[in-house]
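User: Here's a chain of 197 residues. Predict its fold as tokens.
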Amino acid sequence: MPVSLIPSFLLYCFVGGITPGPANLCSLSAALRYGRGPALRQWRGLFCGFFLDAMGAVAVTWLLGAALDSYVGALSWAGAAYLLWMAWHMVRSGGADPDRDPAVPSFRVGLLVQITNVKVIVFCITALSSYVLPYARSPLALLAAGAFLPFTGPVCNLVWLFAGASLQKVFTGHRRAVDMVMAASLALCAVSLVWPH
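Assistant: Prediction complete.
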């Protein structure tokens, strides 16, 4: 990648990482409901899942290159369906007692959220195919960029996580309303993935 594209690449990484998506909303929700400790356990899973997504994107981008573009639309619809399922689950379990909730944030939950996060998969494939592939087709260049990507989105997850931890006491008495807002946000993410496709 030319040096002149690095600011654009970094801006793309920041915007892609900080905007609302499943992992950011899960980080915020986990911190609001359970506090910083459990949310950080989940974040470690999110980080590892992002790394796996990035390495998968390296392999797919290197193997398929430009032919991949035709599948992005199908991935978007699958991701939208998954986000709507997550939103429905959040509405149904809204206001649950954290001591009896089986979905307590954990490494496994974070890993599963991230490896099925279509936003991250599309983000990684787009970053590699737009910023690296046109300038360097070597697996090493793709691998270097892919290894950098997990330090973008998951770092932005921490912003959402610490915001949630800071606001936890404020929202403790409003858990149902917070869950409804989070579910509506996930539904909006789902619509934005497929609209106007």
